[in-house]
Amino acid sequence: MRVFFPVFLAGVFASSGWAQDSAGKGAALACPDSAASGYSAAIDAICKKAASGDAMAQYETGLIFYWGTHRMDSAPEKAAAWFEKAARQGNADAMYLLAEQYTGRREGVKPDAAKAFAWYEKAAVKGHSLAQVSLAYLYMDGRGVTKDEATARQWLEKARASGCFYAQRALDPDDIILVVDPGMRAKEGDPAAQYYMARYGDGARKRVNYDRVEKWYRQSAEQGYAPAQVALGILYTQDAPGKKNLEKAAELFGKAAEKGDAEGRHELALLELQGHEPGIDRAQAVTLLRQAVAQNHRDAARTLGELYRRGISVNQNPAVARAWYRHAALKNRFAVEQMLSVTRVDGGDERRR
């Protein structure tokens, strides 16, 4: 969840076909159209390294094709070709994204459950927690492999041991999908149902009843339900009439963070970095962000990248910023451009044009 950001963190959030047969066909191993991208020098440098056999550069070239830029369309079939090159050299992130494409959730290759399973498994064995969770779901559903719920649970346990938020939710499904009378269940005191009513209960109403939303979130949060604590905290950071209260927001984020909630950690870190929560020093804020990244929070890695790019609460280091942006690009399309913006070329940094 994202609601508000200081000026220095503003940058944090800011057509395809099928490849025939193997994703790694040589004909598909083209470089992105750097002249159209807005990051020509950076992309040319990355693709030159990729063509020479550098696995990380091959993965990065795949990312550029996978997401595109604000000036350049994505080309997922070309992304798959580069991901396979990097994956065959042992890059686990490339294995994971290639598997995502083979599931059919992403374009670029013809869906193939067996190949999706194979690449997820290779990444999972290397310790990739997102791949471990995805592999577990394949075992649960029997897609690309014989159905085996015991093995599925083993993979989820491995992912949870590394702190993965998605594995924790799968094994302890508090945030359930409520399909039978959530309103009644909320009135009976079910915290997950109360959270549901706050978030979705207004349905298609054009105007949000903030008092009603606050009531349901508060009732759920008072029972210790972390998603509601975070959501209520975010409500208190917004400019909804009569609701803004950063002190309460920090308290709620802190309670969720103490439970190990990645969203709570990220939001609490943002408050501290903005100077709104003096009870936690900025070094602790960085620690919270790192913890959220370890749990696969989709925005925390971008936030860390921005801190290192600007030298906020850490020593300025474009190379480290670039690594965090690349990590964020696993799930976040906007991180690719940020990665390119700090790519060093001939001793300098590529700047957005």
Write a concise synopsis of the structure shown:
This protein is mainly α and 353 residues long.
Order of helices and strands: HHHHHHHHHHHHHHHHHHHEE
Number of strands: 2
**Most strands sheet:** 2 strands, antiparallel
End-to-end C-alpha gap: 30 Å
What is the overall shape? globular
Q: Tell me roughly what share of residues is in helical segments.
A: 55-70%
Report the portion of residues in β strands: under 5%
Q: From the helix content, strand content and strand pairing, which structural class follows?
A: mainly alpha
Please tell me about this protein's structure.
The protein contains 19 helices and two strands. With 353 residues, the chain is mainly α. Strands 1-2 form a two-stranded antiparallel sheet. The protein is globular.
List the topology elements:
Elements: H1 34-37, H2 40-51, H3 55-67, H4 76-87, H5 92-103, H6 113-125, H7 129-141, H8 149-161, H9 165-171, H10 182-187, H11 191-200, H12 210-221, H13 226-237, H14 246-258, H15 262-273, H16 282-294, H17 300-310, H18 318-328, H19 334-341, E1 344-345, E2 348-349
Antiparallel strand pairs: 1-2
Helix pairs in contact: 2-3, 3-4, 4-5, 5-6, 6-7, 7-8, 8-9, 11-12, 12-13, 13-14, 14-15, 15-16, 16-17, 17-18, 18-19
